[in-house]
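Work package 3, deliverable 3.1, input record:
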Amino acid sequence: MTGPVNLASKLALFSEHWSPKIVTGFNGNDVMVVKAKGEFNWHSHPETDDFFLVLKGRLTIKLRDGDVVLGPGEMYVVPKGVEHCPVAEEETHLLIIEPAGTPNTGDPATAVTKVQV
Amino acid sequence: MTGPVNLASKLALFSEHWSPKIVTGFNGNDVMVVKAKGEFNWHSHPETDDFFLVLKGRLTIKLRDGDVVLGPGEMYVVPKGVEHCPVAEEETHLLIIEPAGTPNTGDPATAVTKVQV
């Protein structure tokens, strides 16, 4: 558990893309900020829904049956098991929430290590 | 599960204070927006952490050992069991997340019914 969190200040601490940083915890979930740019990979999370809130920029979440496009102040929850591929043409800042230990790529072999900032 | 959610559009659908509205779900949690103004009540949630993100305005979360003051883009998680009292001098808009069924006042007898918008 951490103190009050200023999301913009946390985002200013790093520059790499698609590397979620933990800013606090909530009932066993990691609350994270991430900078997105370019296309991530198609993946799914068999055990958890995937929470996306756009703080800045524009995120397209490709789904097999259509795209979801989100601007600032817009959010979407990808249901567990649903394949998706996030894409950001410009650098986009996100708040995401996942149970601690969830691999960001859907696969522990390729997942980045999530560190706290 | 619902589609993409524009938080400002959801907040425009109602005017009452301290009455959380469910906008989507995430792993059995209700994701809600709420308009805060004035002082809520001192309470705690023995079974869950309490997630606050300020979207607009300014929220003071009074705690027994000091206050946390949050502006837009700032968040705080009140640990489970910790007494707190949210206060907003001006109308303040929040994103909050709690396990479905959590009473907003900490007490089912006085809790509001959370409806989806």
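Chain B touches chain A at residues 1-8, 23-27, 29, 31, 48-49, 51, 53, 55, 68-70, 73-77, 79-80, 95, 97, 99 (CB under 8 Å).
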